[in-house]
Amino acid sequence: MDAATTTATAEPVGGPPPVGPTPIVAPGPARPAADPVPLGWVIAAMILFWPTAIPALLSSHRAARAAGSGDVTTAAREGGNAKRWSVISVCVGAALAVLSVLVSVVWVAVAAVAWHHDGGPFTLEGGRTHEQPFDHRGGDGQTLPGDPGPRDGTDPRGNQGSDD
Question: What residue spans define the domains of the chain?
Fold first, then answer.
């Protein structure tokens, strides 16, 4: 064999061989394409309607733990549960807020109609009012039953009391 052939077979094609041990690169944990924890939805759910936001919060916590440990399928499943409960909470909370506003508007409208129909506040039919005079006497000046009488010490029935 000639020298050119010997040299060509001893050296690999493409350059010299690597020096030292070859590093082994372990693949990192697979990350989902999107963040599995719908944190914005969970916060909105807690503000609008907390009873169904609690399962959303717990599911988002489980999704974050699963994503941190590299369990992509559990993280995606729990993230979906968290988003589902959050959307339910936001919808129920928004519906209750709208219902509250509508009930308030109807209440004010009914109160305004009653006010206009009765002629103002505290007025009954025939011009009578809910106000009572301080001396508890009827319209004809007579003392009403159960009235303790005037505060000057005289008996309204004409009886003279004795000072025993």
Answer: 33-100
